[in-house]
Write a structure and sequence with these properties.
By secondary structure, the chain is mainly β. It is 13% helix and 56% strand. It has 2 helices and 10 strands, in the order αβαβββββββββ. It is globular, with a radius of gyration of 15 Å.
Length: 142
């Protein structure tokens, strides 16, 4: 029980206090509808972080030629994403949320991988806590 509490505290501390693991800034550019085409849809992100696995539901959509999205998980309500850019082949979706009364920035990075697969990453608190894994497109109900 104490080990679980300590691990949980480490995650929270990592989310709100940027540390040495902060990732380097990437050169980004505005994203067009054509750039976003491979990413449009509903996705399930299966990620792994230092404190274990996490699953997120991500939607990337086009609203009046502007790429937007939203993300949610079992422990986080739906968060809107209005800041979308690209870096090389990757789509970057930036948002923020409040955790224990502290603002936390987050960046979802989706990158096409071989054989039609998609790699995914979420960097929280300027990279202080990073989760990596894959994204699978949800099948549309018929």
């Amino acid at each position: 029980m104490i080990r679980t509490l300590i691990a949980g505290t480490a995650v929270i501390a990592g989310l709100v206090i940027p540390g040495p693991a902060a990732h380097a800034a990437q050169s980004t550019a505005p994203v067009t509808a054509a750039d976003a085409a491979p990413f449009i849809g509903e996705w399930t992100l299966d990620l792994q972080g230092p404190n274990g696995p996490g699953t997120f539901d991500l939607t990337v959509k086009l609203e009046k030629e502007k790429v937007t999205g939203e993300i949610a998980s079992g422990t986080m309500p739906t968060q809107p994403i209005a800041d979308v850019s690209k870096a090389e082949q990757s789509l970057l979706l930036s948002y923020s949320f409040t955790w224990e009364n502290n603002p936390v920035d987050a960046v979802v990075k989706m990158t096409p991988a071989p054989e039609g697969k998609m790699n995914a990453q979420i960097a929280f608190a300027s990279g202080a806590y990073i989760m990596t894994g894959t994204a699978a497109k949800k099948e549309k109900a018929k």
